[in-house]
Specification:
Helix content is 32%, strand content 12%. It has ten helices and twelve strands. A six-stranded parallel β-sheet has the order 3-2-1-4-5-6, sandwiched between helices. A six-stranded mixed β-sheet has the order 8-7-9-10-12-11. Helix 1 packs parallel to helix 9, helix 3 packs across helix 10 and helix 4 runs parallel beside helix 5. The chain is globular.
């Protein structure tokens, strides 16, 4: 019987430094009988030599299309836009199950190629909880980016290029320094505060020195009556950490912001959830994803005090090594079951969902 294989592809998204498999988890998979192929990648936070040292086989950058179609390809972010059919099995975040922009075109590539998608966002345990998620680090990094944007705005500037940090301590120290030594006096509101993402945002705000009373922690109870919420305008930073599954009332609107005039305190919105192109986006004050080299987009507020939005869809890469290690470790038990994916509940459920969504995409594309 041949060994199970996983092929770690390089990430083509600009500034993405994380990895779905780390040298640590690769070593454990190899010990369990897997062959691990790793594409050479200078952008990845882990050096090629770290994978080679634990027994991985190094292959050329972006060479996965030449792999046998029976070889499962694992990555994190979506593949570059293309019309090429996809004949392989892919494990990744594809961002195409909630009718995001271009969703049907992505899925139609699998239909035409005969490949399969196992979307990492929809690998769930028996309780419906994701088996692995970057939520905590997304919230932590998002709150940090929001604080950096606030510091820049107070200095009359826009936030410039965001550069990944070596570790959490370096990030916290840098944010505190740019805020003048501490975040004391800053007021923040986190919606989705009880989830992994929200807990990460709250943790960052605590570590940079915000008073506990200045960290407003909202979840289902506080948002049950439906927005827009005027209290959002009374904080410096608003961080959205919800997991959107259906249409809900907007949390904040441009009309509401303009009506508040110069009495508004809100300066920075961090949409960690990043449902930018989702038709149900509850923060309809912006319409583009921002990037590490241009992390904020201004809201048109008609000459009133500045308001900017951060909508980066891979914020955890600000802490690439720690975020990758945590995610990959959480994913490992499921990866060990991947050879039995037809019967393993986590993988079988994910494939069933893929097939359902593919049918919708085929219909939408008229194939």
């Amino acid at each position: 019987m041949s060994k199970p294989i996983l092929w770690l592809r390089c990430e083509k998204k600009e500034f993405e430094r994380r990895a779905a498999l780390t040298p640590t988890t690769s070593s454990k998979l190899i010990a369990a009988g897997f062959d691990i192929f790793v594409e050479r990648d200078e952008q990845r936070i882990f050096d090629d030599s770290e994978y080679e040292a634990v027994g991985c086989t190094l292959v050329d950058n972006n060479s996965w299309p030449t792999a046998r179609t029976s070889t499962p390809i694992i990555g994190l972010k979506e593949l570059p836009e293309s019309t090429d059919p996809l004949p392989h099995t892919h494990i990744q975040f594809a961002h195409c199950y909630k009718q995001q922009a271009g969703w049907s075109k992505v899925l139609s590539r699998f239909h035409r190629g005969g490949g399969t998608l196992y979307d990492l966002e929809f690998l769930q345990d028996a309780n419906g909880r994701r088996v692995a998620a970057f939520g905590f680090h997304a919230g932590f990094a998002g709150a940090a980016a929001g604080a950096l944007a606030l510091a820049a705005q107070r200095g009359g500037n826009e936030l410039g290029l965001l550069t990944p940090y070596a570790n959490e301590e370096a990030m916290v120290n840098n944010v505190k320094e740019l805020l003048g030594g501490s975040g004391k006096g800053v007021r923040a509101l986190v919606i989705g505060a009880l989830g992994r993402c929200g807990r990460g945002a709250v943790d960052l705000f605590r570590k940079i020195g915000l008073d506990e009373d200045d960290i407003l922690k909202w979840d289902l109870e506080e948002t049950a009556k439906g927005g827009p919420f005027s209290k959002i305008l009374d904080v410096d930073i608003f961080v959205n950490c919800i997991y959107l599954t259906s249409q809900i009332p907007s949390f904040v609107t441009r009309e509401q912001v303009i009506a508040a005039g110069k009495d508004r305190r809100l300066s920075v919105v961090v949409d960690v959830s990043c449902d930018t192109t989702n038709p149900f986006n509850p923060i309809p004050i912006y319409n583009i994803n921002t990037t590490f080299d241009k992390p904020t987009v201004p809201v048109d507020v008609g000459g009133l005090p500045a308001l900017s939005v951060i909508s980066i869809d891979h914020l955890p890469t600000l802490l690439p090594r720690e975020a990758s290690e945590q995610f990959s470790s959480d994913l490992l038990p499921s990866l060990l079951e991947f050879p039995e994916r037809e019967t393993s509940r986590v993988w079988a459920d994910a494939k069933r969902l893929f097939l359902e969504k593919k049918v919708e995409a085929v219909k939408a594309e008229g194939l």
